[in-house]
Amino acid sequence: MAKPEILVQSHQHLLTKLQKELTALTSGKTRVSRMAGAKWVDATEEHVRSVRRSIAHLEAILRQDGQSTPKGGSSSAQGGG
Fold first, then answer.
1. Model pTM greater than 0.85?
2. Contact yes or no for 41/34 (Cβ under 8 A)
């Protein structure tokens, strides 16, 4: 059974947002840090992996519904950074 159109649009919007975030992370425009003990450590690569997993998951959901994915599909969730 197909999901309601509003849910599909929401997934597509989130996918586009995550793809933009991935671009910013892999281009070096954005970095992610976290506290480890008493100091900040770079967690950008860890975050990139998480974003890629989220993108792949959303693309799978959209494929199940027969929806096309923005910006050429799953290529954004794969590859190096």
1. no
2. yes
- Gyration radius of the chain's alpha carbons: 15
Give Cα separations from 13 to 1, 27, 29, 39 (angstroms): 21, 21, 21, 35
Q: Phi and psi dihedrals of 33, rounded to 5?
A: -125, 160
- Amino acid sitting at position 62: L
Q: What is the mean pLDDT of residues 26-40?
A: 95
Element holding 51 (H helix, E strand): helix 44-64
User: Residue for token digits 């799953």?
Assistant: 74
| pLDDT in the model for residue 67 | 57
Q: Which amino acid is at 77?
A: A
